[in-house]
Amino acid sequence: MIDEGELGVRLTVNRTAMRPDGEWEDGITWDELQAIKREIGYGDYYAIEVYPKDADLVDLANMRHLWVPAEDLPYGWFRQSAQEPQRKGLK
Predict the structure, then answer these.
(1) E strand spans, 7-84
(2) Does any domain span residue 82?
């Protein structure tokens, strides 16, 4: 599912396969999430997966959510070329 909003896009990913015991298949890997993000057109964008505070935890279904922000992130993994200045740490 893709949910577009003012702050960006939320991607909801889940498996559709069932286990023999009738429960949903589990275990979506990081590589699978990255591939899905790429395959639906967001390969050139950062996405964020949020791990909430315990008090805000909702774990009712086998779903993973990625948020693709509308603006570039000021942090992340960046490859550097020889011409780019090095990014500084905190302050």
Answers:
(1) 8-14, 63-69
(2) no
Over residues 30-70, the pLDDT tens digits come to 999 999 999 999 999 999 999 999 999 988 778 899 999 99
In total, how many domains does the chain have? 1
User: Exposed/middle/buried for 43, CB within 10 Å: 0-12, 13-18, 19+?
Assistant: exposed
Measured over all CA atoms, what is the biggest interatomic distance in the chain, rounded to whole angstroms?
56
Two tokens, residue 34: 């990255």
* Rounded-to-integer distance, Cα 49 and Cα 13, Å: 11
In angstroms, the CA 89 to CA 22 distance is 49
Which one is predicted more confidently, 48 or 25? 48
Residue 86 lies in a domain: no
